[in-house]
Amino acid sequence: MPADNCASAARGVARALKPAVLLELAQTSREYYAWEQEHSYNVLQSLAVTKPSRSREPLLTSVADGQSVAAPDSRSTEASDALTRYDAMQDRWAQFIVMPEAGLVATPIAPHAAYESCTPIDQNILHGDDSNFMPFVPLADDPSFDSEDHVMEYKRLAWQEPYRDSDTLEITLETSRRISQKLHLSPEELDAMEVLPLILSTSSAWGAIWTGKQNDAIDWPGSSRTVYPLVDVMPPLAGNLRLRLQDYLTLWCPTPDCTQAMCFSHSLDQAKLTLDSCRYKAEPFKLLFPADSCGDECILRPKSGCAHDVEWTGEELDDLRVIAHIGGTITSCDLARLCRKPCHEISLMCKKHRGFSGFTADTNAVTTQEHVVQTRSAPASSIRLAVLDCADVLGTAQEGGKGVDVRRAAATQFRNLVRAEIIGHVEGRSVRVGRQNGSATRRYVFGLNDVFSVDAANAGNPSRFINHAPSRKANVAACILLVNGHQRIGVFAKKRIAAGAELFMDYGPEYPLVERDEEK
Ligand SMILES: C[S@@+](CC[C@H](N)C(=O)[O-])C[C@H]1O[C@@H](n2cnc3c(N)ncnc32)[C@H](O)[C@@H]1O
After folding, report:
1. Per residue in 459-508, pLDDT tens?
2. Ligand 1 mutation pick, 467, 476, 502, max ligand atoms within 8 A of CB
3. Where is the SET domain positioned along the sequence (predicted)?
């Protein structure tokens, strides 16, 4: 069926099913509010203060482990010392005996829990019209709390926003669970009907499904949450590596050092990362020595018996292309592990298929005396699975130099550095792009991705004193690596560096210095 016909057929089905969805919504709302009313009444009852029946304050103790009794209307008057109360802990009505004070040890009233231990959930603390995500929310009994001022400042509390109202959220979710079971409608189809009070939206962080995951689930008898969980995002097909990786990159929190998918604490900063935007923008430099060979068939080992006429399927080649495209700093051994192929085959394919993007003519899988290094024109990215042995051989900052270049970094004076040696890593605070510290003329910012930079103005190590030199003069370069789940910016020797020599890095095309003109 042509696409237009399909769409109109789907619209027709949606129209036909709309009354059924409305009916389910009404039924769920009725059930939910009936339960909520009773539940609230019971909770209030359990909190109610019982008036003392004697002048001498009596204390209550439960009858032999609190015997269940009938509801309050049929409260017994047989024993004047017994009374019936709702035992909220046991969720039942139980009989208690009123005991004289003497002989009983009263449990002292515990002090109010510390502020931290009763931090309100975000529904309470968020104000809909407050741009500050975590405004100060005083405790209600705080004598210094100026309620008038507060009311003037904020128009409403967050739960008064429909999409934050937990009742509306639960009713929306429960209705869609039931509908998806009965009528097999997907969240997208339900959203298209525009019947539910909230959109379910599988693609937005503000959709009811996503919001529901962030809240504590309401445990009410009508909920089918555990029986029919709603699936919001369909996992990409196992065979589609490009989509799978794209998905992970999109979901990953872009905050440096946070590799948790959909990390809630950073959810408001959630940026859609794409294969391209997560890449390191500066001049690429990727020469890495893997620490060990990746296995018996690693090209680091004698190549006896390695077949040279291997052929890969189109899909296998595509996987290799995708991984290489994303992993800017990647060695044959890394590729071998990721593609689950022998290392020598990876090397062979890289040479054979120089035409593919990611392995263009400047792809150069070279065998050095010791090992294989992969040099590619693609910029470095944050995907790197190897452990980075970050041996700092950066000398301490030295005062001196010419012009504004006050402090500079030097290589260790104890030995010469060899080409591709890792000499340190950039440290600093993560800041959003454009929010760096430092003066307008002196900056300590290292761009990490489109969203975050590392700013070493107020924190860092000697790498922050590395000055700029145009590419041909620069003797060090940096690349971003994912090391044990953390993003690290490694600084590598681009060439042999004599002991004690000053270190220079090309800051990239955006750095406004006259030296840049010299290059042209
Ligand atoms: C990462 S810091 C390098 C350390 C800096 N020289 C210092 O004294 O703290 C970058 C800043 O150093 C200065 N800088 C770096 N390279 C320079 C160069 N080649 N010529 C002049 N100033 C330079 C600029 O002010 C730049 O914003």
Report:
1. 677 788 888 888 889 998 887 665 545 566 778 888 889 988 888 998 87
2. 467
3. 381-508
374 close to 360: Cβ distance less than 8 angstroms: no
Query: Any idea which residue has 């967050």 for tokens?
Result: 158
> What residues have CB less than 8 Å from 108, skipping those under 6 apart?
none
pLDDT averaged over the chain? 64
Same domain, yes or no: 430 and 488? yes
Let me know whether 367 and 409 are in one domain.
no
Beta bridge partners of 489: 426, 480
423 in a structural domain = yes
Query: Residue 109 gets which letter from DSSP?
Result: P
In 161-207, where does DSSP find H-type helix? 166-182, 187-193
Amino acid at 270: Q
Which stretches of the chain score pLDDT less than 50?
A: 1, 3, 53-66, 71-81, 98-109, 111-126, 133-135, 262-288, 355-393, 396-397, 399-404, 484, 513-520
Closest CA to 421 of 474, 368, 490: 490
Structural domain of residue 356, as residue ranges?
A: 285-382
Cβ atoms 384, 482 nearer than 8 A: yes
Q: To 5 degrees, how large is the angle CA 232–CA 234–CA 235?
A: 130
Answer yes or no: are the C-beta atoms of 437 and 419 closer than 8 Å: no
Ligand 1: centre distance to CA 441 (Å): 8
Q: Give the three-state DSSP class for 488.
A: strand
Concatenated DSSP letters for 237-280? PTT-HHHHHHHHHHHB--STT---BT-GGGGGG-----TTTTS-
Q: What ligand 1 atom has the least distance to the C-alpha of 468? A: 16
Residue 168 lies in a domain: no
Q: What angle do CA 199, 200, 203 make, to 5 degrees?
A: 105
Residue identified by tokens 């890969």 is: 312
Show the tokens assigned to 327.
């992993």
Counting ligand 1 atoms within 8 A of each CB, the residue from 406, 407, 466, 468 with the most, and so the one to mutate, is: 468
Give pLDDT tens digits for 102-120.
444 444 445 444 443 333 3
